[in-house]
TrEMBL record:
L-glutamine binds at G47, E48, S49, R106, I134, R135. NCBIfam families: PLP_synth_Pdx2. This is Pyridoxal 5'-phosphate synthase subunit PdxT. Keywords: Glutamine amidotransferase, Hydrolase, Lyase, Pyridoxal phosphate. PANTHER family: PYRIDOXAL 5'-PHOSPHATE SYNTHASE SUBUNIT SNO (PTHR31559), PYRIDOXAL 5'-PHOSPHATE SYNTHASE SUBUNIT SNO1-RELATED (PTHR31559:SF0). The keyword Membrane does not apply. GO terms for cellular component: cytosol; glutaminase complex. Belongs to the glutaminase PdxT/SNO family. It comes from Ornithinibacillus hominis. The active site is at C79, H170, E172. One of its GO terms (biological process) is L-glutamine catabolic process. Pathway: Cofactor biosynthesis; pyridoxal 5'-phosphate biosynthesis.
Amino acid sequence: RLVIGVLGLQGAVTEHINQVETSGCNGVIVKKPEQLKEIDGLILPGGESTTMRKLIERYGFFEPLKQFSKQRKPLFGTCAGMVLVAKELSASSEAHLQLMDVRVKRNAFGRQKESFEAVLPIKGLDLPFSAVFIRAPYIEKAAQHVEIISTYENHIVAAKQDHILVTAFHPELTNDTRMIEIFIDMVKKSKNTVAL
Ligand code: GLN
């Protein structure tokens, strides 16, 4: 079985673990950098990106996470996780892990749309996906080699670059496991490549 980790410092951790297990993989809550060696892919959950960044520093995760990505191990950032992997943040906020060639705007949908649900077509899925947005970011600008997977009101809300997948919404808060299955496929493929 594939082993998928969820960074367990803060945020929607157990919901992701449940989806990982429902989808037939082993889910591990990652609380120490050493655990990164035992997993085939990592989910950076939603929560509060500034808090998560502080905890990443406090628990010595910053360099190990950069290394994890350098080894091309698959990463899935949801909501705050998407903020964490962005190379750039708008409104001159300081960027965090800087792994993906996108500029992300935090809390991008404004006050009247703090949280909402939208049914979105997703590239690679036959039927639309019911996406839950909570104080969600969106991708303001993406480099050419970033694959846009979904948009909402002309804003990019799901994308992929090499081994990194991101969504502005929270796929773990619904019973629909199709989004995590897209990630699990990426993990499967990356494992096969390493094995060859
Ligand atoms: N607004 C949060 C942030 O920027 C993200 C919200 C979420 O993850 N639901 O960190």
